[in-house]
């Protein structure tokens, strides 16, 4: 399942262009407080041209499938039938407030509270599912995807098992064991 990618403009202004790998570029204006929401299994490109007289600062937030699925189930939704609508350069007061709070908590001088941060992320995910999700008519089949580090770990484990099995077979052959 593709991660949900949310970008919020903290300060500055820019012209933003987006497209899927082979698609056409689409333009939008982005200013302080606007956000972009993307969920795609295909490569996705985003570029921007910021106003050189004003600093352009953004927050990138990835909402993993575990969080989104858990929140969806808590709302009585079937996660396999949900997808997020693509949103570009939109203002949403609730999202702005939550992400302002999240940014302040992460940048604070004291240690950030994981309980507070997780509460904000869960609240944000509830809001996104209620306002920006769409339900598919039937469960969408999603290819099984493991992170690269898990695939490497499985491959190494399998290779080690194969070597050990060959060594055992060779010992049986040498020792004339059945």
Tell me about this structure.
Strand 2 and strand 3 (26-31) form a beta hairpin. The protein has a 4-stranded antiparallel β-sheet with strand order 6-1-4-8. The chain has a 3-stranded antiparallel β-sheet with strand order 3-2-5, with no helix packed on it. Strands 7-9 form a two-stranded antiparallel ribbon. It contains 4 helices and 9 strands, in the order ββββββαββααβα. The longest helix has 27 residues, at 148-174. It folds into 2 domains: 4-135, Jelly Rolls; 146-178. The relative contact order is 0.15. The termini are far apart. It is elongated. It is of the alpha+beta class. The protein is 40% helix and 29% strand.
> Which strand order do you get reading across the main beta sheet?
6-1-4-8
Helix and strand composition category: alpha+beta
How many helices in DSSP terms? 4
How large a portion of the residues is in β-strands, by DSSP E?
25-35%
Q: Give the total of domains.
A: 2
**CATH architecture level-2 label of the largest domain:** Sandwich
Which H/E pattern describes the elements?
A: EEEEEEHEEHHEH
Give the rounded overall mean pLDDT.
Answer: 83
End-to-end Cα distance, whole Å, is: 47 Å
Instruction: Give the assembly state of these chains.
Output: single chain
- C-alpha geometry: elongated
* Strand segment count: 9
**CATH topology-level fold name of the largest domain:** Jelly Rolls
The radius of gyration computed from the alpha-carbon positions, rounded to a whole number of angstroms, is 23 Å
Largest sheet composition: 4 strands, antiparallel
Helix share, percent: 25-40%
List the uncertain runs.
none
Please write the CATH class name of the largest domain.
Mainly Beta
């Amino acid at each position: 399942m593709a991660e949900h990618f949310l970008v919020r403009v903290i300060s500055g202004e820019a012209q933003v262009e987006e497209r899927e790998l082979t698609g056409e570029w689409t333009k939008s204006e982005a200013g302080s407080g606007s956000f972009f929401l993307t969920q795609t299994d295909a490569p996705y490109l985003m570029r921007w041209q910021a106003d050189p007289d004003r600093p352009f600062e953004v927050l990138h937030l990835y909402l993993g499938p575990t969080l989104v699925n858990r929140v969806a189930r808590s709302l009585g939704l079937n996660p396999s039938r949900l997808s997020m609508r693509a949103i570009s350069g939109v203002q949403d007061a609730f999202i702005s407030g939550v992400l302002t709070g999240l940014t302040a908590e992460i940048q604070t001088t004291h240690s950030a509270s994981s309980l507070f941060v997780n509460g904000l992320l869960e609240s944000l995910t509830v809001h996104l599912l209620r306002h920006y999700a769409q339900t598919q008519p039937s469960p969408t089949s999603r290819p099984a995807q493991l992170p690269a580090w898990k695939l490497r770990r499985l491959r190494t484990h399998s290779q080690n098992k194969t070597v050990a099995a060959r060594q055992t077979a060779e010992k049986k052959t040498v020792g004339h064991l059945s």
